[in-house]
From TrEMBL:
One Pfam family this sequence matches: Glyco_hydro_3
Protein name, per record: Glycoside hydrolase family 3 N-terminal domain-containing protein
Residue ranges constituting the Glycoside hydrolase family 3 C-terminal domain according to the UniProt record: 334-466
Stretch forming the signal peptide: 1-24
Length: 475
């Protein structure tokens, strides 16, 4: 079954980005309009990431390198790199906590899902990953609109065993395995499944044994006294799962000490278990790193190693691939649609402008409906054709008008599926295929479409659309 509302929300959101924000046209680096920077080796997308990162680090001065070690990373104008804010949050939706996201204008808000302690109680890993996908869709849209970054310091997988802890609501609960499975699923939803490519970069936090913020005068820099067994069997389990199973892009060390050593300065935790401290949320490294190098306390090679990790993440996010809207975030080449290429949208199908179909049976009275045609029409010019008179799509009605609409528009959205006339109490189906001639309409419209074709299904049950594998959707 295809979640229609999700598909349409994503589609409309990306149209919204391109049509209302000029920042979407400005790349972070490797601007194709810049005749100098586009020829740098690190801008060549056909080369291995490691080679590109190595080339970039080799071009940076010590001062430029140091400027990249903090969350508010400095610009490097001579190499065509803009400044970047690493700190954004997405605990249960794109958040306004942290300087990396800016709501307002074309982006007045984002979807807020239930707090993690509640969602984790469902024990539904599929749901956790699905939430991550929606959050990362919206995060990518905001990035393309120039109002957010692509690095999100979520999820929080700390163990919640004292109900007095103020941040317990952010966590998946007291069970290390559940916390780990939640972290893995949410990370996969955020980062996508396109190989090395990252949709957004997730961060499992706070490593490790952190569960006090301000209790009876004890603040979050407290000393957690933890034996080896508790560390291995409890506190480190979610972080190990995040790394080994979720392939998380980053880990955040915690505020506290563990057995008398601050976690962010513990060589055992950061070098023998996790791979080092690469970025500082704050000004410290920016202020004191150069002096440490001059005094021989720090080797520039260690700075290079830190940048190797952070710049690799940015490369995997596509931030050095040129214009953002040309950078894929999923394996699909059809989405996102962008106003740069898709000024007009053909909206075709019997469910294009339905309302009650969206809420199913045994439903209440919604405050407001926004059907698909209305939603897309807010952000692009639309050409509407019903195609079939209803979802039964019976008879021999011609599809000529629908095919003409597909030929005219820059992209086509087909809204097909079922409604309560076909699936409801006392109405079972005899098969799983699209009703009547819907499949024929889909195939003919996709063949006629001038631009990419998006198929959206509204239904309360599974539909067999295996025929779609044989269709060229891209044109």
């Amino acid at each position: 079954m295809h979640p229609t509302s999700l598909v349409i929300t994503v589609l409309v959101l990306f149209l919204n980005v391109a049509s209302q924000t000029s920042e979407a046209l400005d790349p972070f680096a490797c601007d194709p309009k810049d005749g100098t920077s586009r020829n740098f080796t690190f801008c060549q997308v056909n080369l291995p990431t490691k080679s590109r990162v190595g080339d970039l680090i080799g071009r940076l001065t010590l001062q430029e390198k140091i400027g990249l070690l903090v969350n508010g990373a400095a610009a490097v104008p001579r190499l065509g790199m803009k400044g970047y804010e690493w700190w954004s949050e997405a605990l249960h939706g794109v958040s306004n906590v942290g300087p990396g996201t800016k709501f307002g204008g074309a982006f007045p808000g984002a979807t807020s899902f239930p707090q993690v302690i509640t969602t984790a109680a469902s024990f539904n890993a599929t749901l956790w990953e699905a939430i991550g996908r929606v959050v990362s869709d919206e995060a990518r849209a905001m990035f393309n609109g120039g109002v957010a970054g692509l690095t999100y310091w979520s999820p929080n997988v700390n163990i919640f065993r004292d109900p007095r802890w103020g941040r317990g609501q952010e966590t998946p609960g007291e069970d290390p395995v559940v916390a780990g499975k939640y972290g893995v699923s949410y990370v996969r939803g955020l980062q996508g499944n396109d190989g090395e490519r990252l949709k957004v970069a997730a961060c499992c936090k706070h490593y490790t044994a952190y569960d006090v913020d301000n209790w009876n005068g004890v603040d979050r820099t407290f000393n957690a006294k933890v034996n080896k067994q508790d560390m291995e069997d409890t506190f480190n389990v979610p972080f190990k799962m995040c790394v080994k199973e979720g392939n998380v892009a980053s880990i955040m060390c915690s505020y506290n000490q563990v057995n008398g050593i601050p976690t962010c300065a513990d060589p055992k935790l950061l070098k023998k278990i996790i791979r080092g401290l690469d970025l500082d949320c704050g000004p410290f490294l920016g202020q004191y790193t150069e002096g440490a190098v001059k005094k021989g306390l720090l080797n520039e090679k260690e700075i290079n190693n830190a940048l190797l990790n952070t710049l690799t993440v940015q490369m995997r996010l596509g931030m050095f691939d040129g214009e953002p809207s040309s950078t894929p975030y999923e394996s699909s080449s059809q989405l996102p649609l962008t106003y740069l290429r898709h000024h007009s949208i053909a909206v075709i199908g019997p469910n294009s402008n339905v309302t009650a179909t969206m809420i199913g049976n045994y439903a209440g009275v919604p405050c407001k409906y926004t059907h698909t045609l209305q939603g897309i029409g807010r952000y692009a010019s639309t050409i509407y054709q019903q195609g079939c008179a209803n979802v039964a799509c019976a008879g021999d009605q011609p599809f000529d008008a629908a095919l003409d609409a597909a030929r005219q528009a820059d992209a086509t959205v087909l809204v097909m599926g079922l409604d309560l006339s076909i699936e409801a109490e006392s109405r079972d189906r005899t098969g799983l295929l699209l009703p009547g001639r819907q499949q024929e309409l889909v195939s003919k419209v996709a063949a006629a479409s001038k631009g990419p074709t998006i198929l959206v299904l509204m239904s309360g049950r599974s539909i067999d659309v295996s025929f779609a594998e044989m269709i060229n959707w891209s044109h």
